[in-house]
Amino acid sequence: MDFQGRKVSVIGAGKSGIAAAELLCSAGADVLLSESGRIEEHEVLRLQKKKISVEHEGHSDRVYDADFCVISPGIPPYSQVVKNLESKGIHIVSEIELASRFCKAKIVGITGTDGKTTTSTLVHRICEADGLRNGYRSFSAGNIGVPFSSLVQDMTEGDIAVVELSSYQLERCFTFRPDVAVITNITPDHLNRYEGDIYRYAATKFRIYANQGDADTLIYNEDDELLREHFAGWEFPFAIVPFGLEPAADGGIDRREVLVDGEMIVVRTPDGDDQVIETAEFLKNSFRGRHNISNVLAAVAAARALGIGNEVVRSVLREFKGVEHRQEFVMTLNGASWVNDSKATNINAMRQALESVPGTCVLIAGGQDKGNDYTSIARLVREKVSLLIAIGESQGKISAAFEGIVAVSEAGSLADAVALAHEAAVEGETVLFSPGCASFDMFENFEDRGIKFKQCVHQLQPC
Questions:
Q1: CA–CA separation, 103 vs 184, rounded Å?
Q2: How far apart are CA 462 and CA 335, in angstroms?
Q3: pLDDT value of position 463
Q4: What is the DSSP letter of 243?
Q5: 112 in helix, strand or coil?
Q6: In what order do the strands lie in the sheet with 53-55?
Q7: CA–CA gap between residue 16 and residue 258 (Å, rounded)
């Protein structure tokens, strides 16, 4: 697509919006970057020096004088500026869609409700290790924190782009086509954006394979009921590789091609089972739990689709220590282990963390609610939690949900919650910070929330 001289509005001046504006400007487009909030003066000046027009503290009518528009993922589809753009017939694309049109590298797209960051990190590191041997580079981009648009011009044919994709980023994708697509799972999340309908949410995730063809591969989690039903009985124009931990549902046909046999990760091939690695070789204190075995299965399947050998996969898995803010071990204090799971922004992620805790725990949870059904984990909370400390906007809802099930305290700040947990935790327990909610009520993002939690923990003194 020729962007030279085309007028483009970029709505939202977060990292992805700024990266999209700079990419478009480098391609010769006439770019307006429009932000409803405030942009720091030094950033405005930097962008203007690059010949990018900037407006902030509101969207003017200038945004509608455009050939098309690039929208940041955080701007909801029901916002007024989006409604106005649509009413004027202005085509809206996502930053991912834009970047993909410049991409010369092979693309591995990874989406799902949970596990996509861990899986993306694993795939990227496997590709990095293989690339050192075979002369290509791997880039990690997307929802993992680095805009695709900021890296895409450095990529060449033969490189690999591992792109983590949220549902928000996929909403406005029209031609985006990953060579390898991975769907880790689909459970209720962001339902406030999708009118409470998990199938609307799932349909957005399924955009990841909408343009795939016969040279491409889709990898999905056969253990996930929604995905299993979705891919059963249909013909698709691309290769499908199911993976899973569980036995075939209801005694039915086992379609899994990447699986666990005993304690061994196995890839099924026409020539028989190919043994990759024993689970004990990669499960460690900061990388444990059945859900992480599932993430490894997805990464193994992606590596196989890319033609990467088992030796490289094994070497990476043996060294992998997990992802920051995802069941991250922080320290031991007075015999209690402290774990930072700030990336748990939904109930299923909290469930996975609770299932991975050995013994009982003090649970710190809460934040900006996303339509969560906390009662879905009531049995698990009763079994695993000795004290639940609720924080943030959702603390009242959490307290009500678990009344009579577990002792609940409310804290006015994260620091207060950490102090309460320190008093309550006994030797051998875990203090688990797994919010199960979005972070935006109290923090910039889940990374900021996790960093603040670790700071509070490190300030504690032994009793």
A1: 24
A2: 10
A3: 60
A4: E
A5: coil
A6: 53-55, 30-34, 7-11, 68-71, 91-94
A7: 34
CA separation for the pair 360, 225 (Å, rounded): 29
Q: Convert the pLDDT of each residue in 58-115 to its tens digit.
A: 999 999 999 999 999 989 888 999 999 999 999 999 999 999 999 999 999 999 999 9
Surface-to-core class of residue 195, CB atoms within 10 Å of its CB (0-12 exposed, 13-18 middle, 19+ buried) = exposed
In whole angstroms, what is the distance from residue 445 CA to residue 165 CA?
17
Distance of CA 131 to the CA centre of its chain: 24
pLDDT at site 288: 82
Task: Decide if 66 contacts 9 (C-beta within 8 A).
Answer: yes
CA distances from 77 to 33, 203, 212 (A): 18, 15, 25
Q: Are 31 and 53 in contact (CB under 8 A)?
A: yes
Beta strands in 186-318 (DSSP E): 217-221, 239-244, 258-261, 264-269, 272-278
Residue closest to 70 by CA, chosen among 23, 18, 27, 20: 20
**Helix H or strand E encompassing 431:** strand 430-433
Chain position carrying tokens 């410049």: 102
Phi-psi region of 250 (alpha: psi -120 to 50; beta: other; left: phi over 0): left
- The amino acid present at 11, given as its one-letter code, is I
For residue 240 the two structure tokens come to 């499908």
Mean pLDDT of 155-175: 96
Domains and CATH numbers, the chain: 7-89 (3.40.50.720), 98-319 (3.40.1190.10), 328-458 (3.90.190.20)
Say what the pLDDT of residue 177 is. 98
Name the residue among 139, 128, 10 with its Cα closest to residue 62: 10
Distance CA 8, CA 101 (A): 15
Of the pLDDT bands very low, low, confident and very high (cuts 50, 70, 90), residue 286 is confident
Separation of alpha carbons 150 and 125, rounded Å: 20
In sequence order, the 6+-apart residues with CB closer than 8 A to the CB of 320 are 122, 125, 282, 287
pLDDT tens figures, 107-133: 999 999 999 999 999 999 999 999 999
How does strand 328-333 pair with strand 272-278? unpaired
Residue 297 to residue 181: CA distance in whole angstroms: 14
Q: How far is CA 34 from CA 11, 44, 154, in A?
A: 5, 11, 26
CB 154 within 8 A of CB 98: no
